[in-house]
Amino acid sequence: VEMLDKFIIVLIMSVVHTYIFYPIILALMAYLKGPQEEVESATGFYPNVSMVVSAYNEEKNIRAKIENFLSSDYPKDRVELIIGSDGSTDKTSDLIRPFLSERIKLFEFPERRGKISVLNDIVKEARAEIVVFSDADTMYDKDAVRRLVGRFSDEKAGGVCGKLALYETDESIFEEGLYWRYENFIKEKESEIQTIVGINGQVFAIRKELFEPLPADTIVEDQVLGMKLLSRGYNILFEPEAIVKERIGNFREEFKRRVRISAGNFQSIKFSKKILN
Question: CA–CA separation, 84 vs 113, rounded Å?
Fold first, then answer.
């Protein structure tokens, strides 16, 4: 019984540390470090950008996603959208085709292989120096790409993470919005001490030369990409002004997503053993 009691205490304290002590420690470390040196984007700093999206049966979102991409204020001749249709069985590909151009490309895969395999393939097709990862239902503010990419004027930056702002529907759960406010605070403080480890796959940019193809069984690509960048000595920055919007799901959707993400976070440990300290 005594051993069981100790085990329960350890479990409780691990949760308390994660959600209470860790944010406090982060805030204290950021305060002691002092104000960050602001790294401004150099005048005329507009490297070529490729936004990549893996889409499976996204007929409800894909047109809005393309129109959202076209509304970006990033120089039109320096940004492209690459969509990989992962064996979609609905009208996803049909809805994309009228928009195809030099700037918007579609790669259709006849069989569903999973998001990771699609991303591995379409990143190879990117012609740009910077690759921006997004989801079909994630809508970028007009200046979000420009603000993300601007931080790469810092040569130490291997990746830049933006801010996810959720909007609610009648089926949304309040706790998810609260969680993401907490999550954005964590990223902001981690960025201040240059140690972000958990990134937002919906709004994340990376130097293409640093992208490493991921194993097909990878559950959460963003976590693994972030860990790999850190292990190679690069910083991951948080840009709070690069804002994207996404709908909060209902309880069932968000529970399934959280289970998948948690499993993926544990899986990512095997890719990053040397930086666990």
Answer: 11
The span from the CA of 248 to the CA of 177, in Å, is 7
Strand order in the sheet with 204-207: 104-109, 79-86, 49-55, 130-134, 204-207, 157-167, 235-247, 139-140
Question: Quick one: DSSP state of residue 182?
Answer: H
Cβ-proximal residues to 5 (8 Å cutoff; 6+ apart), any chain: none
Backbone angles phi, psi at 126, to 5 degrees: -65, 135
Backbone angles phi, psi at 13, to 5 degrees: -65, -30
Torsion of CA 112, 115, 118, 120, to 10 degrees: -140
Give me the torsion for CA of 62, 130, 117, 198, rounded to 10°. Answer: -90
* 52 three-state secondary structure: strand
Mapped onto helix, strand or coil, the DSSP state of residue 233 is coil
Amino acid at 133: F
Q: 245: Cβ–Cβ under 8 A, 6 or more apart, which residues?
A: 138, 139, 141, 164, 165, 166, 167
Grouping H, G, I as helix, E, B as strand and the rest as coil, residue 33 is helix
Contact 223, 116 (CB under 8 A): no
Choice between 223 and 167, residue whose per-residue pLDDT is larger: 223
Task: Give residue 225's pLDDT.
Answer: 84
Q: What does pTM read for this prediction?
A: 0.82
Report the alpha-carbon distance of residue 104 to residue 53 in Å, rounded: 11
Identity of the residue numbered 83: I
What's the pLDDT score for residue 41? 47
Q: Strand, helix or coil at 74?
A: coil
DSSP-derived 3-state class of residue 70: helix
